[in-house]
Amino acid sequence: MPVTPLDEHCWAIDTPASTYVIRVEVDPATGEAAPAQKYWGPRLSTEAARQVAAAREPRRHVTSFSTPSEAEELLPVDGGTRWGTPSLQVSFGHARSVELRFAGASEHEEGGGAQRLDLTLADAHHPFEVVLSIRAREDTDVIERWTTVRHRPDQAGEPITVTRLDSANWFVPDQAGYRYSGVFGAWAEEFQLQREPLPVGELVFTSRQGITSHQANPWIMIDAGAAGEEHGEVWGVALAWSGSWRLTTTHRPEGGVSVSAGFGHEGVRWTLEPGQELTGPPALGLYSTAGFGAASRAWHEYARRHVLPTPGEERPVLYNSWEATAFAVTESGQLELAKTAASLGVELFVIDDGWFGARDDDTTSLGDWWPHRERFPAGLRGMLDGIRELGMRVGLWVEPEMVSPDSDLYRAHPDWILHLEHRRRDQKRNQLVLNFARRDIRDWALDWLDRLVTELDLDYFKWDMNRPFTQAGWPEQGAAQDRVWIEHTRGVYDVLDRLRERHPGLRIESCSGGGGRVDLGILRRTDEVWPSDNTDAKDRQQIQHGFSQLYPASTMSAWVTDSPNVTTGRAMPLRYRFHVAMAGVLGIGGDLPEWSPQELAEAAELIAQYKSVRRVIQHGAQFRLAGTPGQERSAVQYVLDDLVVALVYNPLGNAKRGPRRLRLAGLDPEALYEVVLGGDPGEGERGRLVHGSRWYGSALMAAGIRPAAWEPIGADYRSDLVVLKQVSH
User: Fold this and answer.
1) pLDDT in tens, 43-81
2) What is the distance between the alpha carbons of residues 499 and 85, in angstroms, rounded to a whole number?
3) Glycosyl hydrolase family 36 C-terminal domain: from which residue to which, for each copy (predicted)?
4) Does the reported pTM lie above 0.85?
5) Measured at the alpha carbon of residue 286, what is the angle toward residues 280 and 288, in degrees to the nearest 5?
6) Out of 75-79, 306-310, 466-470, 684-688, which region has the weakest mean confidence (pLDDT)?
7) For residue 203, which of 263, 258, 147, 283 has the smallest C-alpha distance?
């Protein structure tokens, strides 16, 4: 099993390829306990782990002004001789310092090869308890950690105030240098990968918006500065949480790096009455020996095995009507679009914003979730049945957490929104945020969502969330109202969980103005996410590159839309747009009546090609190949069983520099692979892929191939889809 006691204060946590050793250090003079990390790296035998745990740590430069070892603690508290970033801050009346004693450890078998270790610590004076939980599994290198704090009920007292509760602090072993990888962004420019030397000091990624946010995503990877896609040690930390969050990386001046991750942000306070407790979301750690690509594949596999609710399904090709109709949703218009979409091979038709209330624009009707009475006097059933008769499943766009001031719901329940007494109610996108921390609001939302699915036999919801929190108060809770920053997110989780329990066949896509709510917390309840409202294929390559660092292709909704693109005005070929969208869950979002007969025919052919390989793309091991996506020659490759799929891109037709051959990855070097799609007909030139030709895996990986799209002179935005099948071992 993953958890091995090494002595009464020390444990080794093993994954298939790594070992994580922790020890509860107790100061003999004060009795204060500080659980600390002793090792995190390649897998060790039990005896080797015992040696590592017993070895005396080399002393860092210590002065009367610093305690460097606090970086190695599993949860450094605000108290004692610590001056770094605390993972836990608590106030007991006027006293803020925390002093913990070790109260015991317990191990729990959880089934399926999972084992949990709980370390319990208690404050030396106050009725306050901390439980550090660590879970490891036999089939993944991802280690899960979280923290629970309790105001013990056995003693009466004043409320305890928590101002910071991180789920875990992870220590990255000493390196000659440190480099961090993460993503930043904005609306329509999400998931921009940044990889830079880690400065000495504190680097904070955060969201204060009540959602994951477009500006940052809750993960980081650390290496020594020389790791590549397929080589080098990488340590990663990710937070499975969909509300406000904070991830603080500390590079200490004496050396050493720690990463502390948790929900919330500065300035919020959570009170604990006697008997109450608060648990943070999972903070996940991963160690990889084979570069960023291997780390990503490990995260992808973890998501498929232990996060996603429907990991084995092949996601359908969908059509979304937004760009064709905007708010002007009518039965005749949608049915005409559906006929064209069905002729292309689309399998799921999603009606976007504009079907409900009096929703003629974005100023009204959020909260009034019944069919638009002028456009659909007989309801939606006839239209949806007409779409189903064309052989497609059906879905609707919804935005359950939002309300328009101009709505029947708001007029009836103005107190239902997030608000503070004696403060204005700021609008964004002409809407306000409903307080999903309240049970009555959650029950209201579940009721109408359930009725829509039941009465209309819906297969799919696109669940949107188009603005962050403002005036995030819950006046009925008094001094405890900052809990809304946590409980709103948990309320969304609750509605999603109960809705899916009632309707196991329902599939849900998470959207928040594009990629504003993408994380391993929301993915536990949804099947895929919308990474960006920007569907420009060139921009999407960079967005999808950053997205793939942590999240698998089966969760990434990707659309082919019109050219010129509605966001950027950039024009590019339909083939290129399709090949970029094929790297995830393919969708169509264009104004189909404006597509030419030639474009429709090409689209039908490309959709058929995608269907023939989507199992490999959505569930295979992913490899990012060659240059920077969207800027130079690049490719993304997938391997599953005996099939290899490569999507090859060249945005610059007159590129003289950059890779000339595409070296594949992840193949059996001794096996033969036959080209079944994407090769040239006939003999072809030497070194070019020819349909039906066979290549050794070693040749494909070491020497590479010459994709047609990579020829040095030609049109901009050329692309290929290459499929090979392993035919011998």
Assistant:
1) 999 999 999 998 877 777 788 888 878 899 999 999 988
2) 39
3) 634-724
4) yes
5) 175
6) 684-688
7) 258
**pLDDT at residue 682, as a whole number:** 46
Helical spans, DSSP H, in 366-406: 381-389
Asked whether the beta carbons of 98 and 90 are under 8 A apart, the reply is: yes
Phi, psi angles (nearest 5°) of residue 271: -95, 145
**270 pLDDT tier (thresholds 50, 70, 90):** very high
- Whole-angstrom Cα distance, residue 396 to residue 381? 12
Q: What is the DSSP string of 301-366?
A: HHHHHHT-SSTTSPPPPEEE-HHHHTT---HHHHHHHHHHHHHHT--EEEE-SSSBTT-SSTTS-T
Cis peptide before 414 (omega within 30 of 0): no
Identify any residues that bridge with 135 across adjacent strands, giving them in sequence order.
116, 144
Instruction: Give the residue numbers of the binding site for substrate.
Output: 187, 352-353, 429, 462-466, 511, 533
494 is catalytic: no
- Identify the bridge partners of residue 721 per DSSP, sorted by sequence position: 647
What is the set of domains in the chain, with CATH numbers? 3-292 (2.70.98.60), 318-534+556-602 (3.20.20.70), 626-726 (2.60.40.1180)
- Other beta carbons within 10 Å of 705: 24
Residue among 459, 519, 533, 562 flagged as catalytic: 533
DSSP state of 567: T
